[in-house]
Design goal:
Elements: H1 2-14, H2 19-54, H3 60-82, H4 100-110, H5 119-136, H6 139-165, H7 169-187, H8 193-206, H9 211-222
Length: 223
Amino acid sequence: MITTLLSHGWKKFKRSVAFEKELATNIFLGLIAVMVFGYAIALGFFLEKIITNGFNQPDSVGFLNGLLFYYFGFEFMLRYFMQSTPALDVQPYLHLPVSRRYLVHYMLIKSLLHLLNFLALVLFAPFAFTAVASQAGASAGIWLLSIYLISLCLHYVVLIFKKGLDDTIIGFLALTGVLGVFALADYYNWFNVSKISAAGFQFILSNPLAVVGLLALLLAIYY
């Protein structure tokens, strides 16, 4: 059934009157995506040197762990503006014996192919298998997996967030306000968000099975 739906989507795209225009646009966007991901990979390889030399931080892993909270805040905002809610023209299928629940699952799973879902992997994989691996060994893979799972959680949270607020300015203001409160709390030492973030990811490095909790969280958000 999934292959059938994918085939229908491709035929709809191919038979569109604006096929050539849309194809050229997609190729152009694809080239931009390749360029952006190329920069992300390069940044990932130089991330350790940037932290140790640029920020004078001897513990690059601990320092980055403390910044991951802010990275996910940035990713959330990026997703809010760039990630659209999955759409599928379901009307032609309503008279067919196709479960609506199945169509919903299809849309949600298909949405995982969004390029933003691979950004964290591309950016942090080089750092994981160099700096993190030198300190924690095989747990570096778990560290990277935890970042990826959190990124996927954000993917579905943004879908819920945008659907609930219907892409209004209220959503942007609420998001900005929450992130602003955390930034002020960190700046005025009301509570140190960076230390909490660093402790959380250090806990994952020390206890790899903790990643199961993130997987459970992802499934809970999905369902």
